[in-house]
Design brief:
This protein has 252 residues and is α/β, with parallel strands linked by helices. The protein has a single domain (6-247), classed as Alpha/Beta hydrolase fold, catalytic domain (Rossmann fold, 3-Layer(aba) Sandwich). The chain has helices at residues 32-37, 64-81, 94-108, 138-148, 159-178, 204-207, 234-247; strands at residues 6-7, 17-21, 43-47, 87-92, 116-120, 190-196, 218-223. A seven-stranded mixed sheet has the order 1-3-2-4-5-6-7, with helices on both faces. Helix 3 (94-108) links the parallel strand 4 (87-92) and strand 5. Helix 2 (64-81) packs across helix 3 (94-108). The relative contact order is 0.16.
């Protein structure tokens, strides 16, 4: 796979393709452990947004719709190279929104849409607005990150590290603040919605709002923990993803 957009942390298998979209400020490496916990038959590909790690010198997107369009264009090339292979998208927090918009674009194009979306740590876009992020300055962004946890908090107090991380964080929050929901047909893809039971950003009830956006089976999986619950339940998350990818329609 010759693309600046995708990273693999395991040897690709011949089974289903799973494409993982990071949260705001995140990079492809946040999914390294999940990729390694999944069955070897899967081909796990992690999206590397511009403006971070080895793409640090590239300007990050400040428009989420344009980010999804670019990701969809790159992913379409991958799908063209292996037509007929089943695939699914996984996104956490902002990544859920990017994955969803990417799936909508692919479903409208010549490529087939994904068989399933795994949407973690946020509610549906028409029921869970991100407009308030548009009013955030750098201090607000850092306060939000501190409140959500999931990051080595000592990094937030390291000027050298934050000098490198802040531009991507700032751009991602700006993209979320500018995002406007555009109504469209529900996807045919099934959905597995994942949420922490004490997530300060999204309640279990709000996570269920994704049901209005799929004509397929929609399963809500609740895990103990906050916004970054998934890092504490890696085995359970891997089992949930495996079930969804292999069955096509995971049972509740």
């Amino acid at each position: 796979m010759n693309s600046t957009w995708f990273r693999r942390f395991t040897i690709p298998g011949n089974g289903p393709l799973l494409v993982c979209f990071p949260h705001a400020g995140g990079s492809a490496t946040v999914y390294r452990n999940l990729a390694q916990a999944l069955p070897a038959e899967f081909d796990v590909v992690c999206v590397q947004y511009p403006g971070r790690q080895d793409r640090y010198l590239e300007a990050p997107f400040t428009d989420l719709t344009l980010l999804a369009e670019a990701a969809a264009e790159e992913l379409a090339r991958v799908l063209d190279a292996d037509p007929g292979r089943p695939y699914a998208l996984f996104g956490h927090s902002m990544g859920s929104l990017v994955a969803f918009e990417t799936a909508r674009l692919l479903a409208r194009g010549p490529q087939r849409g994904p068989q399933r979306l795994f949407l973690s740590g946020r509610g549906a876009p028409d029921a869970h607005s991100t407009a308030h992020f548009g009013r955030y300055d750098d201090d607000d962004v850092l306060a939000e990150v501190r409140g959500l946890g999931g990051t080595d908090q000592s990094m937030l107090d390291a000027p050298d590290i934050m000098e490198m991380a802040l531009p991507a964080l700032r751009a991602d929050y700006r993209a979320l603040g500018r995002y406007e929901w555009r109504e469209g047909e529900p996807l045919t893809a099934a959905m597995t919605v994942l949420v922490g039971d004490s997530d300060p950003m999204v309640t279990v009830e709000e996570a269920g709002t994704w049901r209005a956006h799929s004509r397929g089976d929609v399963t809500v999986k609740v895990f103990p923990g906050g916004h970054f619950y998934l890092f504490d339940h890696l085995r359970d998350i891997a089992e949930t993803v495996t079930e969804g990818l292999l069955s096509g329609t995971a049972s509740p």
